[in-house]
Amino acid sequence: MTVLVLLDHENGAIRQASRSAVAAASKLGDVDVLVVGRNAAEAAQAAAKLPGVKKVLSAADATSADELAEPVAALLASLADGYSHILGASSANSKNILPRAAALLDVQPIPDIVEVIDADTFVRPIYAGSALATVKSSDAKKVLTVRASAFDPVATEGGSAPVESVATPAGEDKSKFIGTELSQSERPELESARVVVSGGRGMQNEENFKLLEPLADRLGAAIGASRAAVDAGFVPNDYQVGQTGKIVAPELYIAMGISGAIQHLAGMKDSKVIVAVNKDPEAPIFQIADYALVGDLFEVLPALEAELDKAG
Amino acid sequence: MKVLVPVKRVIDYNIKPRVKADGTGVETAGVKMSMNPFDEIAVEEAVRLKEKGVVTEIVAVSIGEPKAQDTLRTAMAMGADRSILVETEAVTEPLAVAKVLKALVEKEKPDLVILGKQAIDDDMNATGQMLAGLLGWPQGTFASKVELHDGKATVTREIDGGLQTVELALPAIVTADLRLNEPRYASLPNIMKARKKPMEKITPADVDVDMTPRLSIVSVAEPAGRKAGIKVDSAAELVAKLRNEAKVI
């Protein structure tokens, strides 16, 4: 069996979540990968070095340059003949494209898998992670997205796969890329950070949210947020951790002033160690926290930094 | 301009679902059900477009058991003009739902279909994209802003790392993200009025769609519980535990 993985890349580098998808794909068979878009040629070079990749398909044509769902789904469908499975990371990009490709192939997609049982059987969370469903597909081809936190990403070096050009099928021009507005951040990417420090409504305002930065810097952490903090305008929405935001599973997750609604827990409850700081001793977050500190986060934060500094 | 808004009846988002003891699924008997929160946002967007005078008619659609008519009444109380209930006891997998919706789109000929980005029960995030694929229409998924003008839709999308704007030729598919709007509550007079609004009832067979699921549920289980945590009294104790016990810093 040969498996095709659609890779997400940024400035020519393959995103970590996609390297996790390659790891999941390796459990199913030989792995070919597809890169599309503006930096496709560079990304193809990076993809060729991923261990376990047999062949890199690169579509560097203008039709798929903006990685819009319409041309890329058509491209995936046109390539599907040689593949038993088509995978992508559970990223905004793959979630946009893969279900469309699945419809073109008359296949029911299986999103967000956390375990591969066999070629037809997969485990995926449902109800915001409140249950794990094991599902068996009767489709001839499987279209899957992979939850990055459930599979260790393959390394960035070690492989040497050949690169082959593919062309996006010409389609009707029904969608057009206008632009992007990306949040600027020097910090590690939220989904791949080893440590995540998150703030909730308890941070009270945008200014206070910045108080998390020294702690995050000290720990080399990414900064996350609950939906309450995003809706209140403290931080942009791509900081959001939860059912509708990002799913993270860092080694250490520190929740500051987050009550712990099930939608938030869905995004972080697989973290290795969870620390919660909240002044409400009844906050649901304490039920899943490994270390619970009941107290005012505005007093705890400076004390934490002082302790970390003291210990070196 | 006509808009079609598919809505789904799901377990209320405030309820913690319980896995059935026999591992066949999640307990739904006697559990509070509501409209999927993302679908409320889709209905709200359609109603706002109508209030702006851009949209003339809103048709709400739901596919599922007879009780899904409650969800359609809610959509009509929010402002949908009429509704279609596609009655079935079958599992509503996105592929089959997209096929039913495609048939309804071909019959109703809307200029825009607004769906929620995902249902909070199966967490699939697929129906809108699949409908767009089946129809060959452009898609604006995870929308946080929608503007209609000159036969086009400008859609701002939530992507990893920020926002993306795309322009779609109508007819098109849009899926609503959380930040698209704040859905209104249905007022009592509007709930009363919604009872008189028309609801057409059909079955998947009427539109020639086979609902047989492609995925079979092998089992449904509770995720592994976490080991009970401990309470610490100070930042100093916390740092000591993280360093010496958990060894994560």
UniProtKB/TrEMBL annotation, chain A:
Pfam families: ETF, ETF_alpha. One of its GO terms (molecular function) is flavin adenine dinucleotide binding. Transmembrane segments: none annotated. Binds 1 FAD per dimer. CDD domains: ETF_alpha (cd01715). FAD binds at residues 201, 226-227, 240-244, 257-264, 278. The keyword Transport applies. InterPro entries: DHS-like_NAD/FAD-binding_dom, ETF_a/b_N, ETF_a/FixB, ETF_alpha_N, ETF_asu_C, ETF_asu_C_CS, Rossmann-like_a/b/a_fold. Gene3D superfamilies: HUPs, TPP-binding domain. Its cofactor is FAD. Keywords: Electron transport, FAD, Flavoprotein, Transport. SMART domains: ETF. GO terms for biological process: fatty acid beta-oxidation using acyl-CoA dehydrogenase. Residues 3-181 form the Electron transfer flavoprotein alpha/beta-subunit N-terminal domain. The electron transfer flavoprotein serves as a specific electron acceptor for other dehydrogenases. It transfers the electrons to the main respiratory chain via ETF-ubiquinone oxidoreductase (ETF dehydrogenase). Heterodimer of an alpha and a beta subunit. PANTHER family: ELECTRON TRANSFER FLAVOPROTEIN ALPHA (PTHR43153), ELECTRON TRANSFER FLAVOPROTEIN SUBUNIT ALPHA, MITOCHONDRIAL (PTHR43153:SF1). Belongs to the ETF alpha-subunit/FixB family. This is Electron transfer flavoprotein subunit alpha. It comes from Gluconacetobacter entanii. The lineage of its organism: Bacteria, Pseudomonadati, Pseudomonadota, Alphaproteobacteria, Acetobacterales.
Automatic annotation (TrEMBL), chain B:
Transmembrane segments: none annotated. CDD domains: ETF_beta. It holds the Pfam family ETF. PROSITE patterns: ETF_BETA. InterPro entries: ET-Flavoprotein_bsu_CS (IPR000049), ETF_a/b_N (IPR014730), ETF_b (IPR012255), ETF_beta_N (IPR033948), Rossmann-like_a/b/a_fold (IPR014729). Keywords: Electron transport, Transport. Residues 23-211 form the Electron transfer flavoprotein alpha/beta-subunit N-terminal domain. It comes from the Bacteria. Belongs to the ETF beta-subunit/FixA family. PANTHER family: ELECTRON TRANSFER FLAVOPROTEIN BETA-SUBUNIT, ELECTRON TRANSFER FLAVOPROTEIN SUBUNIT BETA. This is Electron transfer flavoprotein subunit beta.
